[in-house]
Amino acid sequence: MAEIVAIKRSTPEGPVWSSLENGVLRLVLANPPANALSIDTMAALQAQLDGAREDSDVRVIVLAASGSVFCAGHDLKEVTAHRSDADRGRAFFELTMSRCSALMQSIVRHPKPVIAEVDGLATAAGLQLVASCDLAIASDQSTFCTPGVNIGLFCSTPMVALSRNVSRKQAMEMLLTGETIDATTARDFGLINRVVPREYLTHIVAKYVQTIVSKSPLTLKIGKEAFYAQAEMGLAEAYDHASRVMVENMLARDAEEGIGAFIDKRKAEWKGK
């Protein structure tokens, strides 16, 4: 897998558009103006992520959106419509939260790196989506908030992803006030990696992608899985786990090739094994 074949596939329809080229699966939320995470949108996004798990043509996933809003969270009109159900919407609310939680976890547990390309407002579950990605690059026009408290609904599920990215004090500031922060503040908080001018956003994301795609796909898979696993462990357990992972990684053919290429001062040829 030394060279990436320029495979082109695209599906410009439905609430999530997808395209695959040069190892990059680009998923675009395409349900403006809010790009809300309706049941249909979550299902479409989940299907794309699931399909990419074992697809060797996919090396990196970029999650973007159309319009001026990256994602406004759950579809409140869809949610409200179910309040007239016999159970006042309980079953639908449980389905919505279950689907959303599964989606966010599938991003974290995905074997491929997932990068959020944010240009616009990311709010509530939309912010949760950004926080769940491995990397997040935002335009200088982007804003972020967890405004549930303003409408009597604390952003409890977005809180899970948010609190795993920023400090407790910063997370609680956002959750308790519901106020919007700009992209620079989001970067300072640790929610996103970089802030760039809007006109350079796609280009900067592509540079990150090119760098990541040049690495061993097996190494990326091993590393991402180990990173999130050790983060939930105590210090001693984390070192034990990471040591076991390191040994298995050292035995991989790609590690043997990479070390040999470094010593021989040549370009490594990854096999994904």
From TrEMBL:
Keyword vocabulary terms for this entry: Fatty acid metabolism, Lipid metabolism, Lyase, Transit peptide
InterPro entries listed in its UniProt record: ClpP/crotonase-like_dom_sf, Enoyl-CoA_hydra/iso, Enoyl-CoA_hydra_C, Mitochondrial_ECH-domain
GO molecular function: enoyl-CoA hydratase activity
Record bears the keyword Lipid metabolism: yes
Classification via SUPFAM superfamilies: ClpP/crotonase
Ranges that cross the membrane: none
Pfam families with a match to the protein in the record: ECH_1 (PF00378)
Family indicated by similarity: Belongs to the enoyl-CoA hydratase/isomerase family.
Function as written in the Swiss-Prot or TrEMBL entry: May play a role in fatty acid biosynthesis and insulin sensitivity.
NCBIfam families cross-referenced by the UniProt entry: PRK08139.1 (NF006008)
Protein name: Enoyl-CoA hydratase domain-containing protein 3, mitochondrial
Organism encoding this protein: Aminobacter carboxidus
